[in-house]
Amino acid sequence: MTAENLDKQGITVNSAISLKGIVKAIFKDNVHVQIGGKVISLPLSNKDIVK
Fold this sequence. Notes:
The chain has 1 helix and 3 strands. With 51 residues, the protein is of the alpha+beta class.
């Protein structure tokens, strides 16, 4: 398979990853988490909320 064929087919990835970080802020629709010195915003959906 050549690089040209890869571009035509496209690649999709559906996987889960686990990261450990420090929660900096929690908002209604997202959470700000510090991971490795960077603060990133993670969007939330109803299925992500554990009660």
